[in-house]
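User: Um, any thoughts?
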Amino acid sequence: MDSQYESHSSIIKRSFGISIHNRNNDDNIHWHENIEIMLITEGEGVIFYGSEEKRFKRGDIVIINSGVIH
C-alpha cells in the first residue's frame, strides 16, 4: 500500500493548528508529523489506522498518532 506525506496548514498559527475538512469519500492514504484529532460531526465511516480498521460515527473523537499511516 502506497502512502504519501500530508502537510497541514493551520487556520490558527500557534503551537497547534485547527483545520476543517469535509470529506465524504477520501481514499488518500497518508501520514504526517503531527498528531491528528478529529471530531466527527456527521455521518459514519471507517478509518484504516496502521493495519487496523476503526469504525466511527457522529459524536466520536478520533486521535491518530504522528507517523501512523491512515
Q: What stands out?
A: The first strand starts at residue 4 and ends at 5. The chain has a mean pLDDT of 76. Strands lie at 4-5, 30-31, 36-39, 44-49, 52-57, 61-64.
